[in-house]
Amino acid sequence: MWNDFSGIFPLKNTFSEWLAEKQRSMQAAQAALQSLSRQVIDLVSQASVRSIDTARLHEVYRAELARRNWVTVGGSLRIPVIAASFHDHVKHLRVLPELEALPSTADEAVTQLGRLLRPPRSGTHPLRHLVLINWLLDPPRRFGRPIRWR
Asked: Of 72, 77, 122, 126, which sits with the fewest C-beta atoms within 10 Å of its C-beta?
């Protein structure tokens, strides 16, 4: 029987304590991270197949943006307002290194939302959609029906 676990655990000397600023940021982000975590668990547990039905997601996104009056009468998105709100939501999530690719500025939010809110030409990481769902549709049950995963 193999009892030596030393090769699978990190070495103690590789750990370092987070700086006080990082610790405060993490505490401030706790509610946002818990909300995203609960939502991801809930949505993934509903998954019946592998990929997100992005056509349906785009319909849901557009409807919620319209409900918030972030779509003009002519159908254009009010991108500066949308980006500011999205950035305000994700700034707390960026404390985790795995989420640092989320926008760090409203300008970056404009760019990322441009890719997420129009029909994709190429794949988008599902986590980006999960963060967008968390922001727009918290709680995600407001979909009216479960997310369809394909």
From this structure: 122
